[in-house]
């Protein structure tokens, strides 16, 4: 079965390292006024029938992330993707990092919000 491409977006100036479901870390570059603040993105697979580290799947997923600059604590936010989501769906994950203690994660499926969470739902993974 084919997998769909999904995307992690960064609307911040600072680049962000992220990992999906304990996979290898990837970097999504920052953006700025010269790019009209258009978020940059990095691709992630959605493989609901064959769960794999580094790919999104049905059920519980976890994204771990941290800015590439500074001494900020890496964070982990769990979120669910319903088994009713079509395997060919496109998933978009937006990361908004405001400070070392303020951030938001928004997850969409084909443009519809399925999760929105902030530091209240986050779990620090290391200092």
Overall 3D geometry? globular
Number of strands: 10
How many domains make up the coordinates?
1
Major pleated sheet: 5 strands, mixed
CATH class, named: Mainly Beta
Separation of termini?
A: 39 Å
What is CATH's topology name?
Immunoglobulin-like
Q: Helicity range of the residues?
A: under 10%
The strands making up the biggest β-sheet line up spatially as 4-1-7-8-9
CATH 2nd-level architecture: Sandwich
Strand content: over 45%
Mean pLDDT: 84
Radius of gyration computed on alpha carbons: 14 Å
What is shown here, in short?
With 127 residues, the chain is an all-beta fold.
What does this protein look like?
- With 127 residues, this protein is mainly beta.
- It has a single domain, classed as Immunoglobulin-like (Sandwich), CATH 2.60.40.
- It is built from no helices and ten strands.
- The protein has strands spanning 4-10, 16-20, 26-28, 40-46, 59-67, 74-81, 91-99, 102-109, 112-118, 123-126.
- The strands form two sheets. Strands 4-1-7-8-9 form a five-stranded mixed beta sheet, with no helix packed on it.
- β7 and β8 form a beta hairpin.
- Mean pLDDT is 84; it is low at 123-127.
């Amino acid at each position: 079965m084919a997998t769909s491409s999904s995307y992690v977006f960064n609307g911040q100036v600072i680049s962000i390292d992220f990992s999906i479901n304990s996979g290898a870390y990837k970097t999504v570059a920052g953006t700025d006024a010269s790019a009209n603040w258009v978020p940059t993105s990095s691709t992630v697979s959605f493989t609901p029938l064959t769960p794999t580290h580094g790919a999104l799947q049905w059920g519980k997923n976890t994204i771990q992330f941290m800015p590439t600059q500074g001494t900020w604590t890496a964070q982990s936010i769990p979120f669910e993707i319903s088994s009713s989501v079509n395997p060919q769906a496109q998933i978009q994950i937006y990361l908004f990092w405001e400070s070392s203690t303020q951030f938001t994660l928004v997850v969409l499926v084909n443009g519809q919000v399925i999760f929105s969470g902030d530091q209240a739902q986050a779990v620090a993974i290391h200092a």
